[in-house]
Design a protein that fits this description.
Its cofactor is Fe cation; Fe(2+). The protein has 392 residues and is mainly alpha-helical. The protein contains 14 helices and 4 strands.
């Protein structure tokens, strides 16, 4: 049995017709082998993943018609998950208000800084890491628009799939803006290093293994949205307990957006299981075997080649996102999509069903191993080079 690693994430899906899909393998760059896509378990626990090849355009050409046929369903069932812009929250609602004048603005900034004084450095490691995930939106839209059958062909396409994706991106864009500004005003982090890390991360891109295939892509987005819902929700709890109700409200509000987006992607996979259960079941298995990786799993600050592993280990220690969460997400989708009860599957799809339904047991074993990791301390360039505890 392969050793397996896990992670945390942030992205959605979309696409429509493209050149006829062909399956192509592309050797993986060495840089993509640099970081292990762990979430809860440090690289020292599980080790680097095996080198693999990229597969592109793996969806058979005839499957494009499946997504074309679902356009009216998207219009009727998916677009309602968008919120009217006039009813959406905006970052400025949570931040010091410059319209109050110089003194009023300064007082609000001072109050913000007083509240964050009691927050541990580890919390800012999490906030910066989560912000990097939310603020890498250019990477996510680029990835989504590689998916055959649902992409935005023109950049302003009227295709319902494309409308959903742009709407999703517009809502997600607020998350990074809000977290970045709050972190900046806190005065608790080295923003120059944060900015450099952001640029490195976007330049590195991402490798989520969806193969330009929307079946796999929508499985990925369902999982990832639930993971970020949990991560931001847990940060809201920690912030409240530490005495910063405003930060708690910020993280909780972002978590609510992620939950709504999760519900949208869940419905897409439910529909795909209805109209094409065999292909969809195989896609779920494929993504579980590859491991759902956090979009910024290639994060880099110019110094630490193990930055993502170190960030993930802090997340595990604080309970922001853990191996247990990963297992529970898989169990949630097994139940929600009724995967154990699917009938009429072909041989390969039945085998995939069996693998996926047993997969949480594999993750639970890793959870037990994670508890045995030796405590250590590492430096994060974002936190003015202070050491923070990992599994300590």
């Amino acid at each position: 049995m392969h050793s397996m690693t896990f992670s945390q994430f942030t992205i959605p899906s979309i696409v429509w017709a493209s050149p006829p899909p062909t399956t192509t393998t592309i050797p993986r760059c060495k840089s993509l082998q640099r970081l292990s896509p762990v979430s809860a378990v440090a690289s020292s626990l599980i080790g680097l993943p095996p080198s693999r090849h990229h597969v592109t355009h793996s969806m058979p050409h005839e499957k494009l018609e499946v997504f074309k046929s679902l356009e009216s369903w998207v219009s009727k069932n998916l677009l309602d998950f968008r919120k009217p812009i006039e009813k959406c929250w905006q970052p400025s609602e949570f931040l010091p208000d410059p319209s109050q004048g110089f003194d009023g603005f300064n007082e609000e900034v001072w109050a913000l800084r007083q509240r964050v004084l009691g927050l541990p450095d580890e919390y800012f490691v999490m906030l910066v890491g989560n912000m990097l995930g939310e603020d890498s939106l250019p990477t996510y839209q680029t990835m989504i628009n590689t998916w055959d059958g649902v992409r935005d062909e023109t950049g302003s396409s009227s295709c319902p799939w494309a409308i959903w994706t742009r709407s999703w991106a517009a809502e997600e864009n607020r998350h990074g803006d809000l977290l970045r500004t709050y972190i900046y005003l806190s005065g608790r982090v080295d923003m120059m290093m944060v900015d450099k890390t952001m640029q490195y991360t976007i330049r590195a891109g991402m490798d989520n293994g969806t193969e330009n295939n929307p079946y796999m892509g929508f499985v990925y987005t369902s999982f990832q949205e639930r993971a970020t819902f949990l991560s931001h929700g847990n940060m809201a709890r920690l912030a409240k307990e530490a005495g910063d109700p405003v930060l708690a409200r910020i993280c909780g509000t972002i978590a609510a957006d992620e939950k709504r987006h999760e519900n949208a992607y869940i419905k897409i996979v439910e529909k795909l299981l209805e109209v094409d259960p065999n292909t969809t079941m195989l896609a779920i298995e494929n993504m579980m075997k590859k491991r759902i990786v956090m979009p910024q799993h290639l994060m880099y600050d110019g110094k630490d080649s193990n930055l993502f592993e170190n960030y993930s280990a802090v997340s595990e220690r604080l309970g922001v996102y853990t191996t247990r969460d990963y297992a529970e997400i898989v169990e949630f989708f097994i139940t929600r999509w009724k995967l154990e009860k699917l009938e009429g599957l072909t041989g390969k799809a039945r085998s995939a069903q069996d693998f996926v339904c047993k997969f949480p047991l594999i993750v639970r074993k890793l959870e037990n191993r994670a508890k045995k990791v030796e405590p250590c301390r590492v430096k994060f360039s974002w936190i003015f080079n202070k050491e923070v505890s990992v599994f300590g």
